[in-house]
Amino acid sequence: MSPTAQVKKILILSANPRDTDKLRLDEEVREIRSTLRRSKDRAQFEIIAESAVRVDDLLPTLLDYEPQIVHFSGHGTGSQGLALENAVGKAQLVSTAALARLFKAFKTKIECVFLNACYSEAQADAIHQHIDYVVGMNKAVGDRGAIEFAVGFYMGLVNGRSYEEAFELGCTAVDLEGIPESSTPVIRARARSRVADEQSQLVPTDALSASTTSSEDSTRIFISYRSQDPDKQLAQEFYTALKQAGHEAFMAGESIRLGENWSQRVDLELERCDYFLLLLSAQSAVSEMVTEEVRRAKQLRDLRPERKPQLLPIRVNFPMNSPLNYDLRGYLQQIQQREWTAPTDTPKILQEVLSLIGDRGEWIEPEPSSLSAVPLIETVDAPPLPVAEPELYREPGGSVPLESGLYVERSPIEADCYSEILQPGALIRIKAPRQMGKTSLMARILNHANQQGYQTIPLSFQRADSKLFTDLDLFLRWFCEQVGRRLKRREQLEEYWQGYGSKDKCNAYFEECLLEEIDSPIVLGLDEIDLIFPHREVADDFFSLLRSWYESARYGDSGSELWAKLRLVVVHSTEAYVPVNMNQSPFNVGRNVELPEFTAAQVQDLARRYGLHWQESQVEQLVTLVGGHPYLVRKAFYHLRRQEVTLEQLLQTSHTEAGIYSDHLRRHLLNLQRYPQLAEAFRQVVVKSKPVELDSDPAFKLESMGLINLYGNEATTRCDLYRLYFRNYLGA
Q1: DSSP annotation of 588
Q2: Measured between alpha carbons, how far is residue 189 from residues 154, 389, 510, 538, 651 in Å?
Q3: Which residue, among 573, 535, 254, 309, has the nearest Cα to 437 in the 3D structure?
Q4: Which pLDDT band, with edges at 50, 70 and 90, does 500 fall under?
Q5: Phi and psi of 433, rounded to 5°?
Q6: HSE on the CB side for 33, CA within 13 Å?
Q7: How far is CA 338 from CA 161, 239, 317, 366, 453, in A?
Q8: Are strands 566-573 and 714-717 parallel, antiparallel or unpaired?
Q9: E-strand spans in 169-291?
Q10: Which of 244, 459, 512, 712 has CA atoms 20 to 30 A from the CA of 230?
């Protein structure tokens, strides 16, 4: 290196939060410094090391030092981001999108970003939009491998090698030490003129591509669609037109490259997009993946002050009066929609979308009167829904007899719950993984209470804006408004919502305005309360309030009689434990109900309702494939009844992308790839034919997701469907 060359600053940022595994970060910094001291060009480099880095340290540190190389040492969590420290030294995740935006602001200064952290490939891909050279790790890396790679990398760099050559030297150093991790580091590199970059203000069009560029101010659009015509063809037309208009469109079939981690890419594009273009057909209306993408897009929109991404739903051969599943109705109820019925509609809708995106606008929200939400009523001739209705809807002229439906009773659970809800001050907690029948059971408990003359109110927390969960006062007021509206007592709420003490105001409203004024018992069915779990302060206060109501009915004082009139049914998915890093339920009072799978006899009974006259051997084959999972069993029966597949074909193709369960399996894969440690633990289970002993934390979470059965500390795959699919997709 020339003695007149500018001194390059290497900024090393390290973080090892106290609630994460201990790393040898000091040793890594010491070895890098030692490597620099041995170089003849050491005067051309300066190392600056900052430890115990907090999230709020990032901006000022980068502004103060203006480094050319930024090196991060610590923990990565896959697509969820990197773990830095908060004010008390615990882990605080920085999202992939936030990191990309951070380095975008320093793209004219920083040449290379080195992420020496497990599972940091997703962040490397995102940062590479703005930084020419980025190093990350595609899986977990041990302390020794990470240190040896860093030493080899900087040894090359300080001896005049290029970033790409230094990367190769780092991998070589790992090999020389006999550490089997030389394929773990990855580099994203492009050689281009920084001067030209500043003049043209060009960045890659594709988040992970280095060959195509477009305006950095272009709008990003995520296209959600089902991979079948006419949805697929229409998506392609929108994708092409948006690209030609200078926008950056993401369409999975066009944008994701062979071998690329599709789940990380989908997460990244959802975080980055300005608009979410939803092609909503009869098929996508019952798709788990489409519902998950819409949920994520709406969650991002609710949490951001700029309200992005804007949702643009287009109904494809799916009239406005066609029913939607419960979740989609909730997500889209305040959003205007367009209808596509034939190719002749394409030019008009496309022009409207292009004009709206060009103006950075949004579709005007409809008047409340036009929001005629239509529920999907499940029958044997309709596809099973990925989410259930919280109420039993009635046909004109009377109720639908319970025994004529598709609900399968799991005795004695229903009878026990029907008896319990009649008890003064009852509280029933229903928990299980998704699609196990929790909401359906809640609806039947409320229906039974209603038949006894009780006031019943189903309330799904999915209907609350995400921002409400961050403010206790706003959340409790919303909660009271929902209950008060159903009981015709909403007008009185304002006089109670004065002064301080959010829980006191809520408590007084329930006691004085509702329980004192209404003679009959009131049953609240609180569905999807897991949405509040990530917001621990609000969750803790809300659950302590419910606990106090439950306990007040048991005090035996003058207020007990009032609180005894309030009955609660609380429902949550155990899958919610995973993203909030829980290893137990946050709410443990009242009667606990955990829903089991269907037995073989119950599966055979359901087969008869679908008009399938099966032998025991056929039932056994299906139960071996999917266990007694209610949703998966019903999905099989739906397609078998329609003669779209035979049992033999189902058994052969179920675990493939061509099978009827591909949507369900991809949702689970998406969640696993967000948490690489869980994916690795599950991989250990699916490759073994015998039970595998797991650590308690991953074992609890995988069981909560419904992927394994636990026998003590030993785990087995829940069913053959999961074993066959994930054995392929987890690299086993």
Answers
A1: -
A2: 17, 50, 61, 44, 44
A3: 573
A4: confident
A5: -65, 175
A6: 11
A7: 56, 18, 11, 12, 42
A8: unpaired
A9: 185-189, 202-204, 213-215, 220-224, 248-250, 275-280
A10: 244
Residue 339 CB coordination number (10 Å)? 15
Q: How many Å from the N-terminal Cα to the C-terminal Cα in the chain?
A: 46
Contact partners, residue 562, CB within 8 Å, separation at least 6: 511, 515, 516
Contact 150, 32 (CB under 8 A): yes
Residues near 287 by beta carbon (within 8 Å), at least 6 away in sequence? 226, 386, 663
Which are the contacts of 347, defined by CB distance < 8 A and separation ≥ 6? none
In whole angstroms, give the CA distance from residue 320 to residue 94.
Answer: 40
Tell me the two tokens of residue 5: 């060359």
pLDDT score for 712: 84
H-helix or E-strand spanning residue 234: helix 231-244
Distance CA 447, CA 517 (A): 23
Contact 181, 142 (CB under 8 A): yes
The torsion angles phi and psi of 569, rounded to 5 degrees, stand at -120, 115
592, two tokens: 């606990």
**Which two structure tokens, joined as six digits, stand for 557?**
């004082």
557, with CB counted inside 10 A (0-12, 13-18, 19+), is exposed
Structure tokens at 708: 């394994």
pTM above 0.70? no
Left (φ > 0), alpha (ψ -120 to 50) or beta: where does 528 sit? left
Q: Sign of torsion, CA 202 224 725 693? A: positive
- Please give the sequence-ordered ranges of beta strands (E in DSSP) within 56-170, or none if there are none: 69-76, 82-85, 91-94, 112-117, 133-137
Residue 604 pLDDT exceeds 90: yes
**Pairing assessment for the beta strands 91-94 and 692-693 based on DSSP bridges:** unpaired
C-alpha–C-alpha distance, residues 391 and 449, integer Å: 12
- pLDDT digits 0-9 by tens, 235-281: 999 999 999 988 999 998 877 776 667 777 888 888 889 999 999 98
Residues composing the chain: 732
For residue 339, give both structure tokens: 């209808």
Looking at residues 567-571, what average pLDDT do you find? 94
DSSP element (H, E) containing 684: helix 676-686
Tens digit of pLDDT for each residue in 306-320? 778 889 999 999 888
Determine the 3-state secondary structure of 156 from DSSP.
helix
What's the 3-state SS for 7-31?
CEEEEEEECCCCCCCCCCHHHHHHH
Any idea which of 295-309, 417-431, 436-450, 460-474 has the lowest mean pLDDT? 295-309
Q: What is the largest CA-CA distance in the chain?
A: 91
- The answer to whether 224 and 271 are in contact (CB under 8 A) is no
CA proximity to 296, closest of 80, 75, 573, 583: 80
The two tokens of residue 165 are 């050559």
**Amino acid at position 77, single letter:** T
> Over the stretch 450-467, which tens digit does the pLDDT of each residue have?
999 999 999 988 888 878
* Three-state SS annotation for 458-488: EEEHHHCCHHHHHCHHHHHHHHHHHHHHHCC
